[in-house]
Amino acid sequence: MEHYENFKEELQIRTEYAEKVIRRWLPKESGFARTMAEAMNYSMCAGGKRLRPILLLETFRMFGEDEQLAEPFMAGIEMIHTHSLIHDDLPAIDNDDYRRGRLTTHKVYGEAMGVLSGVSLLNYAYETMLKTFEMTSDADRVIRALKIMSEKTGIHGMLGGQSVDVENDGKEISREMLDYIYEHKTSALIEASMMAGAILGGADEEQTALIEKVASAIGMAFQIQDDILDVTSSSQELGKPVHSDEKNHKVTYVTLFGVEKASEQVLQFSEQAQSILENLSNKNKFLTALIMEMASRRK
Amino acid sequence: MEHYENFKEELQIRTEYAEKVIRRWLPKESGFARTMAEAMNYSMCAGGKRLRPILLLETFRMFGEDEQLAEPFMAGIEMIHTHSLIHDDLPAIDNDDYRRGRLTTHKVYGEAMGVLSGVSLLNYAYETMLKTFEMTSDADRVIRALKIMSEKTGIHGMLGGQSVDVENDGKEISREMLDYIYEHKTSALIEASMMAGAILGGADEEQTALIEKVASAIGMAFQIQDDILDVTSSSQELGKPVHSDEKNHKVTYVTLFGVEKASEQVLQFSEQAQSILENLSNKNKFLTALIMEMASRRK
């Protein structure tokens, strides 16, 4: 891979931009429902790499110029992602007390508020993304982007993947089912980010289909790297418990193939994503560098 | 009130129509995520009066003709409503084992699936309503209706009301807060139903604002009637536990004002709704009859 100069500084600039966008679209903490707004914002402001909004923005930049148009969707995708983390951490699901080094939402606000603030973030994502219609006369792009977001989030996307993951917790599962879970639980939202970015930026159907393939491969690489870090990293580095897969008898790429083989697969998926990107006429060197960086991340 | 002939038969026709529409838009029970689809459909097919889709349809009929256009929103509003019931029944919230005479969703499918299938129904509502764009060239109406649905569902609508209700469970609360809870937890979705129906049918802003007032009053009447039935009805009639408000030390219109005064308020809100409706140039006699029927319902 070509060296990308000042990658860290460039990533920092984008992370700060994403952070600013996200905070601008958060609900106000006022009125009777103030506590729920606080719970929503607590989880939204818990740090995180903001990868999905950055992927959305960078894919938008491949095709379009007026990037303000991408902002409600950048905030929206992070709300959808955060909603899934809040619910994942609930006692009825993973029962985790810590996330990103802080107490999880239900530990601070109680379980009922954990359920409700999670759902409210999902709904607020739609409320926020719908505001894009006021920013453009090209309603068609917004409609197509909204459809992708809803499909990739729902039963045929992320939530479907979560449900299968939860249903088969601790069970022996087939490679086919494991791939289904990864493609849905993790890849689907990466696909939603990049496809919505592409569509809002003006990508045609063919280009959007290629972006979906890129995103699918990135998602797989990202999830397998997650499995690897669960085995090779420390709790302090990661900001969440490690060795949890082993403890929970969870089938992963690492338990199936071992760390070394899994690492090769991460590299293969990343290279696959990179090679499709390079064959597109629209270039974004930062995006390519980001993908390779994601594949070698340590946390 | 003017007598409406064959009201029961006419209501039955509309209930069956709503039922058919809802079932047509449910997710398919296939693939790896089959269990979640089953859980979603279990709760969607548990009976219920289908009041919100019927209100949506009847308000649509005041303004528009091609009522097929209202169908995805009829299904969508029932999905949003049902999602809130599934979550309300969870152990972390009301901890109810029965709803409409059947085991609640989490009792059949487990708590994790209760959380996830509830959220999935909310998301599927958006997926479904977004399909309306394929059925009309008038995108603007669909956009406006979607905005209303998202605002009335979220933190400034139903979910906001639920959060305040949950947060103040068993506490002494002010009349002001009680009204906030009723207007949001209950009225907001009635408003969403009728406003979306009006907008999709072609109502202008002024007409939509009047419909919002009608729906707000209907919602209040409906919720206060709910409080009354909790005291005066039997568990068998209602299909869910009675006297639960007293048991949970819940402040309601009945605990504040007594059954007789609360009944008067139901009548007042219903007459208010009726009188605004009658001043609109677009008439729907069945809708007026339905409102009065809702105010005197026994279950």
Write a short abstract of this structure.
With 299 residues, chain A is mostly helical. Chain A has a single domain, classed as Farnesyl Diphosphate Synthase (Orthogonal Bundle).
Could you characterize the architecture of this molecule?
The structure is a homodimer of 299-residue chains. Chain A has 14 helices and two strands. With 299 residues, chain A is mainly α. The first copy, chain A, has a two-stranded antiparallel ribbon with strand order 1-2. In chain A, α3 packs antiparallel against α4, α4 packs antiparallel against α6 and α4 packs antiparallel against α9. The longest helix of chain A has 28 residues. At the A-B interface, α2, α6, α7, α8 and α9 of A face α2, α6, α7, α8 and α9 of B.
List keywords for this structure.
homodimer; mainly alpha; Farnesyl Diphosphate Synthase; 14 helices; 1% strand
- Strands across the major sheet of chain A, in which order? 1-2
Share of residues in strands of chain A:
under 5%
Q: CATH homologous superfamily name of chain A?
A: Farnesyl Diphosphate Synthase
Greatest interface: A-B, 55 and 55 residues
Question: Which CATH C-level class of chain A is it?
Answer: Mainly Alpha
CATH architecture of chain A: Orthogonal Bundle
Structural class label of chain A: mainly alpha
Q: State the share of residues found in helices of chain A, binned by percent.
A: over 70%
Number of domains of chain A: 1
Number of helices of chain A: 14
List the helices and strands and how they pair.
Two copies of one chain form a homodimer.
Chain A (H helix, E strand, L loop, with lengths): L6 H18 L9 H11 L6 H13 L7 H19 L8 E2 L2 E2 L1 H5 L1 H20 L8 H15 L4 H10 L7 H27 L3 H28 L2 H4 L5 H4 L5 H27 L5 H11 L4
Antiparallel strand pairs in A: 1-2
